[in-house]
Specification:
187 residues; alpha+beta; Jelly Rolls; homodimer; 23% strand; DNA-binding; 4-stranded antiparallel sheet; elongated; 8 strands
DNA sequence: CGATACATTTACCAAATGGTAAAAAACTAC
DNA sequence: GTAGTTTTTTACCATTTGGTAAATGTATCG
């Protein structure tokens, strides 16, 4: 996933604006297992995944609850930090060695107030994250864990290969036991 | 909730921009039980609640699943229609007689591309909806139905008075039976 | 390759939840 | 106020899920 692909997939903007925006994408690399964002901090950067896979989890009474997976092209951010400049609930762990684009929130915010096209790009970015988040919420509310597991296999078959099942069970809101049962049923 | 309060609570913008935006708020009234938005349509308007209360529900195999409640100050919109101009999953039912502000999405989109301040207002609007949606998702993932019910009483005590318990049970992801059990336990 | 650690499956029982139906309570409309 | 409708509670049993622990399978590293 190139910088251009990422920017264009969100909203098409004129070349001058795009150049201003592109300047802020800095490529960084981290190893598998690296904790990129922490729940107890106000995070100053957001990221886009060029290559690799990550998860977000919340610490709840001595267990981790995974509530998001991200892969190539996805944005990594603590929404709370990004939007309200407060501590969030999300820890981000890289599940593979990752190549990322790093952007400073402060720089982005400055551009938003200076450039109409970039402001609209930022609006579209938030709107698209909103749609994705609502979809996750709906799927959780409307479908059973078993249905959502099947959906996951269908939509992202590689994810089951690349991610430990413990995290997938947690993501589905069930125990590893129950996930094993579901997997056994299907075959 | 006045138009000014609603606009200002999202993002402060200069008076000229605000005047342009305000022109688009049209007050409308509908009776209790009115279906404001439908899942099978591309909705062309969004609303803010001046007075009253509403719920969003999805039709799933001959049952309705409530996944959102809105009250004074909240925005009512089919995210899918607003963001992607596609049919959404949400039906909106007014649970009381409501006074609403209606805005045409097309007019808003035009303003977004013409006025930097309004574009940023639209960005903040999406960002704030994003935070709220993520919070609902997290709460669902992390807390039990019982905990979430207690939280609901604490945060919005009036809601339990104003909304039939069937909808609250559905919102919490449990049956009316289980909600009754929870309520019985608490006392 | 082998030893160790970690992840996953299976089995068992306990606890929580759903479904149906009937009783009680609350709300509507005349 | 009363009859009728709708909503909520309660009780029962069937089903699903969780928790613990042991067994199997898979990775990792010297």
């Amino acid at each position: 996933m190139s910088v251009d692909q990422i920017i264009d997939s969100i909203f098409l903007i004129p070349n001058e604006s795009k150049a201003l925006l592109k300047e802020n994408f800095v490529e960084v690399r981290y190893p598998k297992g690296h904790i990129l964002l922490r729940a107890d901090r106000i995070e100053k950067n957001i990221y886009f995944i060029q290559k690799g896979i990550a998860r977000a989890y919340a610490d709840v009474e001595d267990t981790e609850i995974t509530f998001w997976f991200g892969r190539e092209g996805d944005a990594i951010l603590s929404m709370r930090s990004y939007v309200e400049n407060k501590e969030g609930y999300d820890n981000i762990e890289l599940l593979e060695e990752c190549a990322l684009y790093e952007l400073k929130t402060a720089n982005l915010n400055k551009l938003f107030l200076e450039d109409l096209h970039i402001a609209n790009w930022g609006r579209r970015f938030a709107e698209q994250e909103l749609i994705k988040t609502e979809e996750r919420l709906l799927s959780r509310q409307v479908r059973t864990a078993s249905e959502r597991y099947k959906q996951l296999i269908k939509d992202h078959p590689d994810l089951i290969q690349r991610v430990p099942l413990v995290h997938i069970a947690s993501y589905l809101g069930i125990t590893r036991n129950s996930l094993s049962r579901i997997r056994a049923e299907i075959m």
